[in-house]
Amino acid sequence: MKHYITEHIGHEFIGLTEALGASALMLKSVVFWFFRSRFELSETIKQCVKIGVDSVTVTVLTSFFTGMVLALQMGHSMRNLFSEPMYIGTMVAFTMLKELGPVLTSVVVAGRAGAVVTAEIGTMRVTEQIDALYTLGTNPTRHLLVPRYIAFMIMLPLLTVLADFLGVAGGCLVGVVKLDISPAVYFDDILTYLDIADFMHGFLKTFFFAFMIATVSCYKGMSTKGGAEGVGKSTTEAVVASMVLVMVLDYFISALLVAVGI
């Protein structure tokens, strides 16, 4: 039993090391073709639509109702403590702009767009379409990966800004309807206690999240094997890994930004 456990741990460690090495080589190729190849505008716009525009609906619903429930819970907690809801706008805005906006949006994009990217590239891999690109003299990294990286880096920050705004708006709706807070008081609290650094704290994190989601999705797609079953397995692994890494990176990036005063 002990031997089996040791062998299993060693096998997993070797697999992780190989995956890190292969993803590093993929990143090297992406960086190379990003600076050396012609910018494929049409493919990049197409990926921006798939990754960003198609994720707007789920982002809107998630962020709006998150802001609503934040205001509801905080309002009732403040009422129990101080007999009236205080600083609801400030607390909702702080929470959405610095944490829940970027993190929830990244999780949503990883689950929807990340799965789409992995499935598309994985299907092309198992049906030998990527090999056909090599035969036709087209580098798959330049044609497939670079536009997707650019699309993730553009659309995720924009979706996060939308999520921040809608989360604050959802909190305002609950504040007015359920907590009897005037919109003027709600937004005055936000403008009084928040500054641009609070917004930038969450906004900057989205670039790291976007790069990570693109890397995991593209790598899992490019390494897919085993037919249709392999595509499903790679897609599941990509989504799970991206969501977990969003949470892990969130702490370390937040600590770094706090250390530099953002």
Feature tags:
mainly alpha; 0% strand; elongated; 262 residues
Q: Could you give the topology of this structure?
A:
Elements: H1 2-36, H2 41-51, H3 56-82, H4 88-126, H5 129-135, H6 140-177, H7 183-193, H8 196-222, H9 227-259
Helix pairs in contact: 1-6, 2-6, 3-4, 3-6, 4-6, 4-7, 4-8, 4-9, 6-8, 8-9
Can you put this structure into words, describing what you see?
The chain has 262 residues and is mainly alpha-helical. It is 87% helix and 0% strand. It contains nine helices and no strands.
Report the average pLDDT across residues.
87
Beta-strand portion reads under 5%
Quaternary form: single chain
Number of contiguous helices? 9
How far is it from the N-terminal to the C-terminal residue, by CA?
50 Å
The topology string of helices and strands comes to: HHHHHHHHH
**Radius of gyration using CA atoms only:** 22 Å
Name the poorly predicted regions. none
Biggest pleated sheet: none
Helix share bin: over 70%
Number of extended strands: 0
SS-based class: mainly alpha
Tell me the overall shape: elongated
What is the count of structural domains?
1
